[in-house]
Amino acid sequence: MEKVNPNVVALSLGITASILYVICLIAVAILPIQTMVPLVNNLIHSVDFTGMMTKNISFAGSIIGVLAWFLIAMATGYIYAFVYNWVGEKF
Q: Fewest CB atoms less than 10 Å from the CB: which of 4, 18, 47, 67?
């Protein structure tokens, strides 16, 4: 089993999450809330976002969100690659 580079996996996942977050920001900015609520309710089961969603997203908040998801996804990617390589050595 070939090893993966944890840094490459972490960076790739961080970039991917950032792109998806920006797409979500664009969707929230373009689509009416009445369209977004059922979509988000279906994505996150057991939570009703009716009355909770807003279009008041600041530029600073958007940047913080992109950076936060980038870091969360990078950490996830690094942990995934570490575990993948570790499991690959065992089997």
A: 47
